[in-house]
Amino acid sequence: MKRYRILLALTCLSICKLAVAAGLQWYNADDWDALRHAHASRPWIVHLWGMSCDPCRQEMAAWGRFVHDHPGIPVTFIEVEQAAPPEVRSVLAQGGLAGGDQWLSADGFDAAQRYAIARHWGGEIPFTLLISPDGKMQTITGTMDFRRLGTWAEAQNRR
Fold it and tell me: What is the pTM of this model?
């Protein structure tokens, strides 16, 4: 039994190292304010998604094209279901999103964390926040209308 626990601990450490090596970061309750501060006074998109969400995974390639076509608009991806880092990294890479601002939920998203991000967000995914430089936030629940997103991005670039 002791060997099993040691093996399990080593496996968890290996997974953590893989997450860091892949550019993935652990998201904790305290990270939202730091992220908001880091992106203050410029347009920013936050996309919350999950591995068990088929629409979330299916639209990753479209997100990859958007990120490629709009390099001036930072996009933060937060996987909210505490998935295994190698699986998350694989889905993001298949979508052309290797690297970038990518986060994994370290301890799940409770009501307080959801409220901190968007007061009306009940946890449904995909969920996207479009934040303009003045801090005004638009939220989109469900799959993205990338034509609408492109229009929003172009409006931000004209500011």
Answer: 0.84
**Beta strand 137-141 pairing with 127-131:** antiparallel
Whichever domain contains 94, its CATH number is 3.40.30.10
pLDDT digits (tens, 9 = 90+) for 28-68: 888 999 999 999 999 999 999 999 999 999 999 999 999 99
3-state DSSP assignment of residue 16: helix
Give the Cα separation of 88 and 77 in Å (integer).
11
Average pLDDT, the chain: 86
Domain ranges, residue 104: 2-157
Q: Starting at the edge strand that comes first in sequence, how are the strands of the sheet with 101-105 ordered?
A: 24-27, 101-105, 75-79, 44-49, 127-131, 137-141
User: What value, to the nearest 5°, has the Cα angle with vertex 56 and ends 126 and 123?
Assistant: 30
Q: How many CB atoms lie within 10 A of CB 107?
A: 11
Specify the number of domains making up the chain. 1
Q: Residue 7 above 50 pLDDT?
A: no
